[in-house]
Amino acid sequence: MLFPTLTFALFFIVVFALAWILQSHAEPRKMLLLAASYFFYGWWDWRFMALLAGSSAVNYLGGLLLARTAEDRSRRWIVAVVVAANLATLGFFKYYDFFLDSLTDLLLKFGLQRDMPFLEIILPIGISFFTFQGISYVVDVYRGHVKPVSSPLDLFLYISFFPQLVAGPIVRGSDFLPQLSKPPQLTRVAAVYGFLLILAGMLKKTVVAHYLAVDLVDPVFVDPAAASSADLVAAHYAYAIQVYCDFSGYSDIAIGTAALLGFRFRKNFDRPFSATSMQQLWQRWHISLSTWLRDYLYRALRGEKREAGWRMYRNVFLTMLLGGLWHGANWTFVIWGAILGAALLIERIVKGRYHEWRAQMVERKDASAAQPSGGASQAGPFVSGFIGWFVTFHVFTVAAIFFRSPDLDVATSYFEQMFSWAGSVHLFSPFLLVLTAGSVAVQFLPGNALEKTAERLRSVPASMLGLLFGGGLVLTKFIGPEGVAPFVYFQF
Q1: Which amino acids are annotated catalytic?
Q2: How far apart are the first and last CA of the chain?
């Protein structure tokens, strides 16, 4: 059940109406939302509803056991077992065949051939997302950041809430669970904001991402060797925009639909392509995942002690490497994570050396070096900011070639043909140029533009708002290509 479809629209209208009819009846309302969430998930493949319920049950019981256990060692064992159970489930469904295939290739290099028990496992949709939500809940209970819930209904709804179930954002229990204990409210501003997010998400997905994918990105990745260098250069920019619009579009629709049901989620993207450093980009891209990796993976690697030097660099690199692997069971994702991890390390090292040099200049009272005067003092930040943006953007777009490639052979072919400087533009049109450049340009608008717009529209009559939003949705459907492709992050 894809978001930009009539099926989902009808489903959501029914859920929305019933949810607000039950506004003052907390338990029946939660039961309705839970039933709707399992119906939504079962629409993809009903066989995996038991997996979702089992994952929720394990994390619920883990939270209860932690609440009833005071001894530190026992609590560590409980959280370790529950986290291991979550990771084992994710590992089996997502990485079993990948690791066996990699092991087979390794053995063949040593002249050994073995028949491996490949299973051709079907990947349950959304397993990476609801698994990470379950882990975050149990770890937060262990750390004392969230109180364990006594009601299984609350925990099951938290894990399975349909707007963000299959492709995020990854919502923390500390953000979601307290909202279940409060009467739901839907102010005019919140409703307008929700509709604006849905409209923005639809525009990103059904128009920008879809056109870039259908007209340029997908054709060149089928056979990069047959494409011109110019089209390949254009496509590697276009794909970065496509995956951003596709995934942030899903996040916008998810956050918007949740808002219409009375739930408030944090932003998952915040103008990442205006970032002037790799660190800043990762603070703005897929925020719920990057903060999850920071709080639950990097912190686990680091331990309780603050660290610096090579251990910090090692842990940052491992976090990015495993973050790449989280995206899919393919060496292309591992290399993607490794490139971005290496870029983060190089950036930290260069910045550290630069700050040391600046400190030395200040100590020597070299005024011309420490504090340039006149026009240079004004041009300096702009120039350094532009260079930082240019390098950051291009590191990301080049790494994205691995992210999009189905295997290493396609990625290698892409780079070889792109740098052969052969052929002229065939697929990249002025229309696609406008979509690509325009999508980058809007990244430099204020980050609260939608919130401000919602505030300004609060006094507009509801009937007029309904016409505006309805017309906007119809328009996005009309100007977009025919059909709706699945969201990119559904495969993760």
Answers
A1: 327
A2: 17
**CB 196, CB 450: distance < 8 Å:** yes
Q: Rounded CA gap, 194 and 23, in Å?
A: 18
- Residue 15 and residue 260: Cα distance in Å, rounded? 11
27 belongs to a structural domain:
no
Strand, coil or helix: what is 293? helix
Residue 5 in any domain: the answer is no
- The Cα 443–Cα 362 span in angstroms is 35
CA distances from 418 to 57, 160, 224, 228, 403 (A): 50, 43, 8, 7, 16
CA 129 to chain centre: 10
Q: Which residue has the tokens 């002037």?
A: 276
The mean per-residue pLDDT over the stretch 433-444 comes to: 90
Domain boundary among 184, 216, 231: 184
Structural domain range at position 57: 33-184
Residues 310, 166, single domain; the answer is no
User: Taking residues 292-299, what's their average pLDDT?
Assistant: 92
| Angle, CA 325 vertex, CA 275 and CA 113 arms, to 5° | 150
From 158, 184, 210, the end of a domain falls on: 184
Residue 485 is classified by DSSP as: P
Q: Say if residue 178 is exposed, middle or buried (CB neighbours under 10 Å; 0-12, 13-18, 19+).
A: exposed
Distance of CA 394 to the CA centre of its chain: 19
Nearest to 140 by CA among 299, 30, 315, 259: 299
Measure CA 55 to chain center.
Answer: 21
**Distances from the Cα of 240 to the Cα of 72, 247, 368, 440, angstroms:** 46, 11, 40, 10
User: What does the mean pLDDT of the chain come to?
Assistant: 88
Whether 376 and 332 map to the same domain: the answer is yes
Residue 378, pLDDT above cutoff 60: no
Q: Is residue 379 scored above 50 in pLDDT? A: no
Decide: 300 and 310 in contact? Cβ < 8 Å. Answer: no
For residues 413 and 411, what is the distance between their CA atoms, to the nearest angstrom? 5
Number of structural domains the chain divides into: 2
Rounded distance between C-alpha atoms, residue 15 and residue 262, angstroms: 12
- Whether 407 has a pLDDT exceeding 60, the answer reads yes
**Percent of the chain with pLDDT strictly greater than 90:** 61
Residue 138 lies in a domain: yes
Note whether residue 256 is domain-resident.
yes
Provide the 10 A C-beta neighbour count for residue 244.
Answer: 25
- CB contact set of 115 (below 8 Å; sequence gap of 6+): none
Q: Taking the CB of residue 126, how many other CB atoms lie within 10 A of it?
A: 22
Per residue in 179-202, pLDDT (tens digit) is 999 989 888 899 999 999 999 999
Same domain for 194 and 179: no
Distance CA 173, CA 87 (A): 19
What contacts 72, CB < 8 A, 6 or more positions away?
A: none
